[in-house]
Design goal:
The protein is mainly alpha-helical and about 290 residues long. About 70% of the residues lie in helices and about 5% in strands. Strands 1-2 form a two-stranded antiparallel ribbon.
């Protein structure tokens, strides 16, 4: 094994980690504000990827060009799911919440298989698909670089929204204590709706970016949804900063671990690292509780 090959794996892992981070940040925002885990988050990503793919297949719009459509469509889906499903179970037992979003994930996956078949599809000749950057003997694909840049930009916007604006402080107040926030004049219903819209829009963005270099099929949400769940647990439940940092770490561990011991065991390596971290720090890397 040469240094160049290992360096290639490290770079690929970090770039893929930014995509994991973006998906996990959206899930963490929903969990932090609404206090409910969206088990269909991976299927939302799958729909975001199909949105970008069909925009290319039907109208020849490159996934990067159709990003606003993917973001808007998934943000709207998040609002609809909140209004029609999760709003009704906010005060329900935890098991009811789990069954509701888990059932939604199965429905969306089955619907995709019925409508579009289980076959894997790929966007051909995207704007950045064949471009790459040479760093000595290490090559970095332009689609992965663009996806990483998009993830960083999206995280910066969400961090600014949450930490620096009145709306963000209202969201965090709602997350801390819904009743107290309501007494202070905060419209908690709007905060929940916003959290679902922004969190779902994140996977719309991630889906559009992924489609430039990653195949889409109905079960793709299982891969990214499971990984995002591990990421937010590793970073600390409800911590956006933790989710972003843990996403990069998980991407690095997955790719490098898969390279060193085999692709079949790459997720096992992630779980081992997760168990070691929570054994030392049960609240995760940046979690408070």
């Amino acid at each position: 094994m040469t240094f160049e090959i290992l360096a290639q794996a490290v770079i690929n892992g970090i770039l893929m980690g930014f995509v994991f981070a973006l998906v996990a940040v959206g899930l963490s925002l929903i969990l932090g504000v609404a206090q409910i885990i969206n088990f269909a988050h991976g299927e939302f990503l799958m729909l975001g990827m199909y949105t970008a793919f069909w925009m290319w297949a039907l109208f020849r719009l490159d996934p990067l060009v159709s990003l606003p459509i993917s973001i808007g469509a998934l943000g709207l889906l998040g609002v609809c799911v909140y209004k029609l499903i999760t709003k009704r179970i906010l005060d329900a037992p935890r098991l009811t919440q789990i069954f509701a979003t888990f059932g939604l994930s199965i429905f969306l996956r089955s619907m995709a298989q019925f409508l579009w078949s289980p076959n894997s599809r790929m966007v051909q000749n995207s704007l950045v698909g064949d471009l790459r950057v040479a760093l000595g003997k290490v090559y970095v694909g332009a689609p992965q670089l663009v996806a990483a840049a998009g993830a960083i930009l999206a995280y910066g916007v969400i961090h600014w929204l949450v930490e620096k604006t009145e709306i963000g402080r209202a969201m965090m107040a709602t997350a801390e204590d819904r009743d107290a926030a309501s007494l202070m004049g905060i419209n908690t219903e709007q905060m929940y709706t916003l959290a679902w819209a922004v969190g779902s829009a994140c996977v719309g963005l991630a889906g559009g970016l992924l489609t430039t270099f990653y195949p889409v099929e109905p079960n793709i949400g299982l891969v990214f949804g499971t990984t995002a769940s591990v990421v937010i647990a590793l970073g600390g439940f409800g911590s956006i900063k933790g989710a972003f940092a843990a996403g990069i770490i998980v991407g690095l561990i997955q790719v490098v671990g898969g390279f060193l011991i085999g692709p079949a065991f790459k997720f096992a390596v992630v779980l081992v690292v997760y168990l070691l971290v929570v054994a030392i720090r049960p609240q995760g890397l940046l979690g408070k509780y």
